[in-house]
Amino acid sequence: MNPTHRPTGGMTPVAVALAALFACSGAVAQQAAQPGQAAQPSGPATPAAAAPGTTQPQTLREIEVRTSEDKTSFSPGTLSVGRAGGDPHDIPQSITVINQALMQSQGSTSLASALRNVPGLTIGGAEGGQIGTNINLNGFSARTDIYLDGARDRAQYYRDVFALDAVEVLMGPSSMLFGRGSTGGVINQVSKRPSLTAAAEASVSASTTGLVRSTVDVNQPLSDTSAFRISAMAQEGDATTRDQTKLKDAGMAPVIKFGINTPTQVTLSALLQHNHDMADYGVPPLNGRPAKVDRNNAYGFGDDRTVSDITALGATIDHKFTADTHLRNQTQYNDVTTDARETAPQNIGRIVNGAYVAGTTGTTAVPLPLISTLPIEQLWVRQQSHDRIINDRSLFNLTELSTKFDTGSIKHTLLIGLELGHDTYRNQAYYRNGTCGRFALNPVGGTSGYASCTPLAEPIEINNPPNALSLPGNLATATGDTVAAYINDTIELTPQWKLVAGVRQDHFKAEVANTVTSATTLGYEKQTVDFTSVRAGALWQPTPAQSYYVSYSTSFNPSLEQLVATTGGTQPLPPQENKSYELGGKWDLNNGNVSLSAAAFQITQTNARSQNNDGTYTATGTVRVNGARAGVVGRVTDQLQVFGAYTYLDGTIVDGIAPGTQGKTPANTPKNAASLWATYAITPQWEVGAGATASAKRYANNTDLVQVPGYTRFDAMVAYHQPKYDVRLNVFNLTNKYYYDALIPSDGGRAVPGSGVSATLSLNYRFY
């Protein structure tokens, strides 16, 4: 490899420009904090000093009106991502919002647990280069489609909800709004923001699994135009009933906002988090199903750990020129470092004359001899190391100008945006070669990282064997630069008819370097992608409570999108291209207290990538998902409120993306999935709740050779409310259902069992 081609740690011109913009944001914030420096509203000039004895007209500034907001309601309100549109009725796209009230009612503490309210969204476990919250949405990976306050949150870590007000899920390809990725949709985390009302609360909870958790949320006005808010979290213990799921996490999220209710508002925010977790690689496949073992079996080592340090810094300036025109600039810097020492079950075999003999991994239709007929007590699991130290950094700046104007009788809401981004990635891999019994598991010079073996039925709980030393493997480094511009217009032809049209041009350039090369990994590769994304829709709103729409949207996924190599053997592959058609409706009932939605859609991905038998990739496949979804949320009566959703996904690999996949169902794509949560206030003090999450069968890989059965899980809640405090008991998996939560496609398709029955008792206290 030519060393001059290797991406360096130096800053590119785009990165330098973004750093300067970030520094400017801080300078403006300091200026906004100075007395008398806030920008004045536009409009007529303020009159000169009035003569004695006369009354001088007052120029009033915009006032924050605080209504009797129902903080216990599951109804979402307006969307936080301005470029998507604020009122969900004006967005020709399916949207699901999980707000803080719903998360608290269900006892959700992680992003993954909150997202289980969204049928058609499935969880993928940690694997290979993937760590943290991994999501499939509408049958497609959403690995790089997670956002924080509308800014790309690409790094790999386990995401908590302690600092979030809501989680917004926009369905379908959305590259016109968000850039590369977003085949199945995007997930946007909405952070808590300061207000001019003082508030402080603290919570503590304890679970039967042994997990103890506490959170704090304090909002403090600093003046009549500024406020400070800080949220914090600490937790320690076992996350589930499964072995080896210990957590020890802490985080804080301070936010300060200047210029509240003035034309110029500046928000500075940070998320600082430290995670010390254990990855759960689940159980291996056996004869086309997850191995039938105790649900708490884990096949890692006691000293496995995934340690992450997360730093996310944000600065947003929002200036209102007039009531209809404002300019917004957002800068977001993320730095995530993860030190992972993880062990996964890789292959089920047997012990012959003291040596491990590999058997089936689930990738072949016919198991190797004897494995399928042997008692499970005679089978062993080979354990493979998945160790790496990853540093993931990104710096993005987004500038948006929005304005409203009329052309005759036609009204326009125009959005113009410019996005600049710079990503860097460094992944130092390690491997641990060990023995099974008296014999080595790896050939001399091999780097497969097979560390040890353990019985399948009753795995031995030990630390990493002393003879399985950690040795460095491949060092992957990468950089990526993004430059994009877009324009979107919402056109109101009449109060009943609206059109939405948008176009975006992306320029994405990436470079990847590796110190270990092979047929599957090039020493150096680069890729430049120029792609035009479009969005179009039509809405008919016969009354304010009804909205019907049809839409078309596109997106693209470069092969180096994740800043890791995906090569055809000699060069990067063309980007995956995605198209979506959607027809739907949204209705408000019960004086706007209940919202209904329904949609039918089709998403087609061409140039779909897959790994060949020799380890290289091809991009010749086509994947299509035909689906439908429906949802309900809101207060049915003063006592009863519900949140429910259903999704139907008919996914098909139209053209084979790998041998044996044509006509198959994409991995982790259930045909039917539903969720329902309902609460009822028996009295003003006592509240009960119950719900279910259901999924049809899924496949753990694209060959459909490992099938994971469907399930229905029930949860329940009882709460006691007082003006100063709440006491809540949540019971999870009420019937102790044995089901599989997350799926991992690698090594034939592993499945992670869900937790057994457990309960969490929490106390939330409001100081004022």
Descriptive account of the structure:
The chain has 768 residues and is mainly β. Helices cover 5% and strands 53% of the residues. The protein contains four helices and 40 strands. The protein has a 22-stranded antiparallel β-barrel. Strands 1-7-8-5-6 form a five-stranded mixed sheet. The protein is globular. The N and C termini lie far apart (63 Å). Residues 89-186 form the TonB-dependent receptor plug domain. It holds the Pfam family Plug. Residues 1-29 form the signal peptide.
Quick structural overview:
This protein is mainly β and 768 residues long. The protein is 5% helix and 53% strand.
Radius of gyration: 27 Å
Q: In what range is the share of β-strand residues? A: over 45%
Q: What's the end-to-end separation, in Å?
A: 63 Å
Relative helix content: under 10%
User: Structural class from helices and strands?
Assistant: mainly beta
Q: Could you name the ranges where pLDDT drops below 50 across 5 or more consecutive residues?
A: 1-68, 361-367
Shape, principal axes of CA atoms: globular
Number of helices: 4
